[in-house]
Write a structure and sequence with these properties.
Blueprint (H helix, E strand, L loop, with lengths): L1 H50 L3 H15 L3 H12 L7 E3 L5 E3 L4 E2 L3 H4 L2 H4 L1 H15 L8 H4 L3
Antiparallel strand pairs: 1-2, 2-3
């Protein structure tokens, strides 16, 4: 009988120890995951910083907008201001249909069939594709940001 009590006490103590240390282990695991994610986030931030445009690059993009859109360049710049004011190529939006919008004018990747993929990685090419779309459709391709730019 005494051995049975001892075994029961040992089992009880073991359960108490497990009950105490298991949450601590779970906390430690979650803390390690959070630290790894923090390191990953820092890496992404550094990568995004490397993709940011210099003032000279922004000037080059805006000069292309002026050159192509001419008298309508201010309206085109409003579109950029609403769609991607930083003009960073790193600014990418995923759409419900799985396509992406990229660049200063947030050109949808469905247009890669027609224009190639250059507009997805080159801001000036993004402006050129936007100009082609504008020549054909006016500002209709940017209807979703109409509340911002108020162009039809």
């Amino acid at each position: 009988m005494r051995n049975k009590k001892t075994v029961l006490i040992l089992i009880f103590l073991l359960l108490v120890v497990v009950a105490i240390f298991r949450p601590i282990k779970m906390y430690q695991d979650e803390h390690q995951k959070a630290q790894r994610l923090q390191v990953e986030i820092q890496g992404v931030k550094k990568e995004n910083d490397s993709l940011r445009l210099s003032p000279t690059e922004k000037e080059r993009i805006l000069a292309e907008v002026d050159r192509l859109f001419g008298n309508h360049s201010q309206e085109a710049k409003k579109i950029i201001g609403c769609e991607n004011s930083s003009m960073d190529m790193a600014h990418v939006n995923r759409n419900r249909d799985g396509s992406f919008d990229t660049g200063p004018f947030q050109i949808n990747t469905v247009h890669s069939k027609r224009f190639g993929t250059g507009f997805m990685v080159d801001a000036v090419e993004n402006v050129r594709v936007a100009y082609q779309l504008w020549k054909e459709q006016g500002f209709a391709p940017w209807y979703s940001s109409h509340v911002c730019h108020h162009l039809s």
